[in-house]
Design brief:
Length: 162
């Protein structure tokens, strides 16, 4: 029997499972460490303001097996809105079934439908499998070098005030 697969916007009811998925992803990446509270807070920030981004889930027989997280920003180089593909993860036991490709294609279709001008992502340098995956879907390496400055917010600061 074939599984029923759907991709749809994530909801707050999905938060716990999504944070577990992000924990899986961050345990595989050298730059990040799983922290359930941070992942929950980050997801809530996206959910509370749809202009910040979207989180889509792939469900197989109603169970979440993967997610993709898209953040929205403006590019002065492109002269319009662009997407930062922040996270794409499929549960380890469900990999190799095309679910990641389905999630990525959904994101690309969403970006085209909403007239975004570019999708940018970061992937671990030594992770050749994920680089090949994204290249297979039309992404190419940039000559730009990502750099990062981590800031520690004050203990009593929970939200950024602009």
């Amino acid at each position: 029997m074939n599984a029923k697969v759907v991709i749809e916007p994530a909801t707050e009811a999905d938060l716990d499972e999504l944070s577990d998925l992000l924990g899986e992803l961050f345990s595989e990446e050298k730059d990040f460490r799983p922290n359930k509270q941070k992942q929950l807070y980050g997801l809530r920030l996206i959910f509370e303001e749809p202009s910040r981004g979207r989180v889509f889930v792939l469900r197989s027989d109603n169970a979440i097996v993967g997610m993709i997280n898209l953040l929205f920003t403006v590019s002065t180089a492109e002269g319009g809105f662009v997407i930062l593909l922040e996270d794409l993860v499929v549960h380890d036991k469900f990999r190799g079934h095309g679910y990641g490709s389905q999630l990525l294609q959904h994101a690309i279709d969403f970006a085209k439908e909403k007239n975004f001008l570019r999708i940018t992502l970061l992937t671990d340098r030594p992770e050749l499998r994920s680089q090949a995956f994204f290249k297979h879907h039309g992404f190419h390496e940039s000559s730009m070098l990502p750099m990062r400055l981590l800031l520690s917010p004050a203990a009593d600061q929970t939200k950024v005030t602009l």
